[in-house]
Amino acid sequence: MTTTGIRLHAPAPGWSIAADVVVVGSGVAGLTAALRCEAAGLRTVVVTKARLDDGSTRWAQGGIAAALGDGDTPEQHLDDTLVAGAGLCDADAVRLLVTEGPGAVRRLIETGARFDESEGELELTREGGHHRRRIAHAGGDATGAEISRALVEAVRARGMRTVENALVLDLLTDAEGHTAGVSLHVMGEGRHDGVGAVHAPAVVLATGGMGQVFSATTNPSVSTGDGVALALRAGAEVSDLEFVQFHPTVLFLGPDAEGQQPLVSEAVRGEGAHLVDADGVRFMVGQHELAELAPRDIVAKGITRRMQEQNAEHMYLDARHFGAEMWESRFPTILEACRAHGIDPVTSPIPVAPAAHYASGGVRTDSHGRTTVPGLYACGEVACTGVHGANRLASNSLLEGLVYAERIAADIAANGLPARVPAPVSHPEIPEHPLQTAQARFTIQRIMTDGAGVLRSAGSLAKAADQLQRLHTDAREALAENGATAEAGVDTWEATNLLCVARVLVAAALLREETRGCHWREDRPERDDPAWRRHIVVTLNPDRTLAVHTTDTTDFPPTLPTQAPQEQ
Length: 568
Fold this sequence. Notes:
568 residues; alpha/beta; 5-stranded parallel beta sheet; 5-stranded mixed beta sheet
């Protein structure tokens, strides 16, 4: 096993913590993994970029999908997931998800999560791509917030060690390339400050998504692809990054709106809201058997097509027929968000447009969450387990985080990895690889929105690739000419991570010459199974060029290096 030798330019760690496991991220995946590891007697440290309850999970509105209702079965859930994944799901991974999912949800309830009930039974709803009501929700449309509350309370009740307001920088490895912990930067709060390290033979990446690579997204500002970028620098494989799901119904705040945008949950359509144009025409009827409840990629394309046809900036979601009482009881969070922006969905249709929402690809793992770097695990949105294929089925994300986090904890507990001594890391005053400036973040977002958004083509992607390469080259040339790089800090580290994941996403999207799932090529509008029923796998070369290859769907999950068990 070899690593790339690439690290972010940062000061040497000034403090350290010793642990058996370090979990990076505090969403449903990270906190579930941490609780299970701690329960197995492993010294566990949770590192999170903001506060413990500020992960992406708290923004999830719709719910969590599992075959929990009368007449529903894991096989039916599997079928819906495979259809949504457009031929690229790993069937074994999906079967594992849907089979272990109901039990994982029940254990979440035992942990303290309170889901909405009716007459003593879980109240289940439908979302896009599901043929049955199997979405459990909490607080109407505040499912993520309730799950986050329950898990955070459980972590604090156990007195687990946590490091908040900390940006993870790089993976630490020993001389043989095995995981030995992470370096991180604490942003001025808590028991530690500045750059430090957590030394541990097992690292669990649960860092969430990378939606901030686009100008408009439903993701919080911390979702800058840090986990994927770290894994690439460490030598791990990343797969299917071209499949970025654009949520069809995001509250439209104007053509120049940037950053995190309010989500209008798919559950609103599940309860009977209609997508209409300015004339009130339900344009999704006839495009798919499920109309507004078609899989997300189909609905996002339908909205975008209608916008193009009518030269419109947005469409509308009409749920006026719900009435005030239903809006206030079932969707109070969305109602409040709409009214805060001057729109009352009780009396007016909601202006909506697609925005970047979820990365179906990520760090490639096996069924136990193991990556191609020994001792490095990944779960949740940062991972590519094979479950989502080319398009995630609605509300499968929270379930995937639960199920695979539990499997990771079981694997670490069963195989107890021996302690590793991190290899010395040089921290030169002048780095070999420069950081991007803080302002580059906005340049990257505009490049990606224009060239690699909902609508893509060879021309738009090639232009984006050139512009991203120019950012990289300009920084290298400036370093060569005057020996200077952008000052190390959170903003420059995030911008550098965004450029890394943007380059990989565009390279994969340019290579995939077809339309499949949430990857829509205007110049290649048809799905091409003979040529492209394949995964695109990317690694980072030591010189920061990308190594890109394809692999057959039967070659998933990857063959991983042997991880030595703990000596007795």
